[in-house]
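Morning F.,

Quick status update on the modeling queue. The single chain you submitted on Monday has been processed. Sequence for confirmation:
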Amino acid sequence: MGRPRMVLGGLMVMLGGMVAPAAAQADDMAEIRAIHAEMQRLASRVQQLEARHGMTEGTHVLAGRTLRSGPRSSASSTSVTNPSGQITAMPDLSRLTIGGPALSDDAQAAAAAENTMTESIVPSQPKLDLDSSSPLAITQTGVDSLPPIFRIGGVSVRLGGFIDFSNIYRSKNLTSGPATSWGAFPYANSPNAHTGEYRPSAQLTRLSVLLQGSPTKDETLSGYIETDFGGAAGTANSYQTNSYTPRIRQAYMTYSNTKWGFHVLAGQAWSLTTGYTQGLLSRHEQLPPVVDNNQIPGIVFTRVPQIRFIKDFGRKWWLGLSLEAPQVAYAASGSAGDHPMMTGTDDDTLASSGTTLLYNNAGSGMLNPNAKYSMDVAPDIVLKGALDTKPAHYEVYGLARWFKAMGQAPGGPIREHVSFAGGVGGDVTVHVIPRYLQFTGNVLAGEGIGRYGPAMLPDATFKANGSPAPIPEIIGSMGLIGHPTSNLLIYLYGGVESAGRRTYTGSDGFEYGYGVNDLALSSCNVELITGGSCDAQTHTIADLTVGGWWHVLQGGYGAVMTGVQYTYLRKFAYKGGDGATPTTGGNTIYVTFRYLPFQ
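Structure tokens below.
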């Protein structure tokens, strides 16, 4: 330890004695930066050697925990002289180490490069950045831009998140929390269509933890957990104590090898069908900067368990393959009063053919017993390619799905029916005026893709023999994100989700399936306080959304933001046999306040 200290001490003496005339100031500053870099390299080497031989010299003890000196940014470290006359560094909590050595500089750089695509650790206390088309402080937890709070062995620990208080007003009563059920806007026959709702909520409060370690300078292991309070257990209510519960938003592990350009993700994360701002790595998703937890109609996404493999080619071209947890939402036409597709007996039986169906089951074990889960045969498969250029980011992908149902004709054997579904999609982000204006757009078209849109249109209906019949659909949106000033963000989005027909005519002469045109729908517009019958099937849902965020405060105490979002929505049904074409719509307004303690 004596020799490295002598080297460090000598370098510091050289640094202190360098006083250059004004004419040579630029050269001196360059030399100072070079000396600082050499000091950092030597300090890192000392740490590595100490860790290898189990030495404790050169470490500092703070509150019973080991704190190792090392490279720091000028914003977060100060040099002082200890009683022995040796120059050391002021304690920095981002270097707090529990139970092992700190990460080397190379390891830190590799960990940062995986998600920030930079070559060095981001400085501590970074300024809140709203210049992106999908700012991490708003759409994610911004954890990647934050310095480590402490380290456990060779693992850095970063904390992110915000405290959220949202005030929500809807012109029609959906009895919905801060995630709007866009497809549930009621028609005129429902009394809820004639009154609004106001719901304040703190459920969008979000917390996250990012764990990162580097076995080698080229490899990075990460673990990410993100949670909010969007869960609603059986005891949850809004009467006295609310009791809304934490839930998993994301929980996944990643492995990244920058030398090979190879990346793996396993766990619950945003679907690979979601658009990205750059590359295809996690926490770079192109999410609209809206408040609503269900995004807005036209945005393509799910957030489900998956395993994903990504290959980058020079961080410019990207290829990804993801195997994702499937679920299928089925639809059936009619009701008890209007030639229903199903007979309404204990078993789901097709009225047209008498075929008995089994296509979902109630949850058990650790699944929700009050929810129905589809019978799945294989994961949803997403194959995506992406290209990063200076002015824009482009993506194109394919989606494959499989639907399964069990059918039994009268007196016949049980048969398993499997149908293929899927589609093709694309995303683009264009920096129209760099740092001031971006354009984003996405589209997904195919059959059986309803679950990938926030309006939650159905994925499939049934054929006469009980086979699943995927419904043709298209989902798409366009948006503009502007940054008039460094602390102001504004956005404008328009989106649409539309379902096609998938019908057949039964032996009784009636139409069955989705998008049928012989239902009696005039009752959908009859106002009844007790509610009336309405078998309308949704054709199209469209929205227009405008909003903005104002970055109010920033400092060592964190950051404060306030946001406003307005969404206008229209819902159109298929025309009925009586000539009625039900439509409805509504307005949603959010006024939100957020405190970001880690920013």
